[in-house]
Specification:
By secondary structure, the chain is mainly α. About 70% of the residues lie in helices and about 0% in strands.
């Protein structure tokens, strides 16, 4: 029995194999797999560069934060031999019932409000005044303003404690007062604000200088051509364009003030007198290392993190809105 093949039909067609759909399918599938694999590897490269930073962020930030939340549900006196007793939300309930907690929040708000002139208003005035200083004297002007920021907070606290000493300090001689500025309930908080503001002033002025450098001088020239005065240029051009920088300074003041004041408070007043300088950050440290109540301290730390996180989120949103409108 003979099979008669059509002269134009390929052998694969006679054998029942479609050369278009079946013969090339493995090659197409393999090529597509290799393309997807290369694309996936290219998308993975940025994460490989970020992985060390992400690992450090998880190890040093998120892991301790999770442990703090967990510790806030226990009662423990920090002794390795003492058992940790689960108490649920009892630490938070105790914290809300303590008048010292609410008083420390009020002092923290006063501290932040008192530092804002040193970190926002005064730096703008000094940075704008620095524009009128000659080129040769500008370096000295900038160095004198920035120098206090380089002083260690503990050393600054010791020097200011000597300057404010009631038994013959420089401030007492100038003012003719024998008042104990550091250990007076009415003045202790103001002393901490002035010393911290004196230290942060140089950093804030440096940030404002950077913000002014990012504003093109073409705006000023165009406004002067239109007949605008210097005060009008500062009010309607310079300050609106400087607003993202000012919001950044407000954000850093709100977030870093409790931390930056800690060494000065600990070296000068230890939270006194009568807790007049005890802010929320110093209070949670006092609960942990003076009262040895780790759970209560962790609860205060968690509330501090949440509260300042909400404030930071609001300020970042406001900063983005201001930057968007400026653009």
């Amino acid at each position: 029995m003979f099979v008669i093949e059509h002269p134009s039909a390929p052998v694969d067609a006679v054998a029942g194999v479609d050369p278009v759909t079946d013969g090339s399918r493995p090659a197409v599938t393999a090529s597509r797999t290799r393309s997807l694999l290369r694309r996936g590897l290219r998308g993975l490269v940025p994460y490989l560069y970020l992985s060390p930073a992400l690992a450090m962020l998880v190890i040093w930030t998120y892991r301790p934060l999770f442990q703090a939340v967990e510790l806030s549900t226990y009662s423990w006196n920090l002794l390795p031999s003492a058992p940790m007793k689960p108490v649920g939300t009892a630490n938070y309930e105790r914290l809300f019932d303590l008048p010292a907690f609410w008083d420390s929040l009020g002092r923290t708000a006063v501290l932040i409000g008192g530092l804002l002139p040193f970190t926002v208003i005064l730096p703008v005035a000094l940075a704008l005044a620095g524009r009128k200083v000659g080129q040769r004297a500008r370096t000295v002007y900038q160095a004198l303003i920035f120098a206090p920021f380089l002083v260690a907070p503990v050393a600054a606290g010791a020097v200011w404690r000597w300057l404010l000493h009631p038994g013959g300090g420089v401030v007492g001689r100038i003012t003719g007062s024998h008042r104990n500025w550091v250990y007076d309930v009415d003045t202790a908080q103001a002393v901490i604000i002035v010393i911290t503001g004196w230290q942060l002033l140089g950093f804030a002025v440096l940030v404002v200088w950077a913000g002014l450098a990012g504003i093109s001088p073409d705006y000023d020239e165009a406004a002067r051509v239109d007949g605008a005065s210097s005060s009008q240029i500062r009010r309607w051009i310079t300050m609106p364009m400087l607003s993202p920088t000012l919001l950044f300074l407000v954000l850093t003041t709100v977030l870093l003030t409790p931390t930056l004041t800690f060494p000065i408070i600990d070296s000068m007043t230890q939270g006194g007198p009568s807790q007049a300088t005890t802010n929320i950050y110093y209070l949670l440290w006092d609960y942990a290392f003076h009262s040895f109540d780790a759970g209560l301290s962790a609860a205060a730390g968690v509330l501090l993190f949440v509260g300042f996180g909400v404030l930071a989120g609001g300020l970042v949103w406001l900063s983005e809105r201001v930057s968007f409108h400026d653009d």
